[in-house]
Design brief:
alpha+beta, Alpha-D-Glucose-1,6-Bisphosphate, Chain A, domain 4, 2 helices, 42% strand
């Protein structure tokens, strides 16, 4: 059995965890900040909670695949976890922790490569690209969430 490939990142967002959560589970609009993915859709009648199934097309390192995910942890506005059931398996875990300035958002993708050791070697090679993409996603999420938070400056 090959080991998973883990990519971990985080960012500070000047908005409360509730505002961040709204963007994390706005299924059809995830492409606003996850630019490597498109055609998001929920395939279950339920849209919230453990058991929600969603799909999206994902393209990383020139490879496009259909990623089917199942929500396995749903604790708004703090914990959110999905299980990847597509060609690449694994899980994505996010934790939004309230801070004095807003939210510290931590994200870990634990990916199980396809096709054994060959897939593992390929994913290790593209891991820096995945890290760059996921960090860009967080910067886009930060900009999106912060643009939607009402300005509280006295005026």
């Amino acid at each position: 059995m090959v080991p998973p490939v883990v990519v971990e990142m985080s960012i500070d967002i000047a908005a409360p965890p509730e505002a961040v959560w709204e963007r994390l589970v706005d299924w059809e609009n995830l492409g606003l900040w996850m630019r490597e993915a498109w055609d998001f859709r929920v395939t279950t009648p339920q849209r919230e909670g453990v058991g929600v199934v969603a799909q999206a097309k994902v393209r990383i390192a020139g490879i496009t695949t259909l990623d089917t995910v199942v929500v396995s942890r749903w604790e708004p506005p703090e914990w959110f976890q999905i299980e990847h059931k597509g060609w690449v398996g694994g899980r994505g875990l996010m934790h939004a922790r309230r801070t004095a300035a807003g939210t510290y958002l931590w994200w870990r993708e634990t990916l199980e490569p396809p096709v054994g050791w060959l897939g593992w070697a390929g994913m290790v090679v593209v891991k820096p690209a995945m890290a760059w993409i996921f960090n860009r996603d967080l910067r886009l999420l930060k900009a999106l969430v912060e643009s939607l938070v009402p300005d509280k400056t006295p005026g």
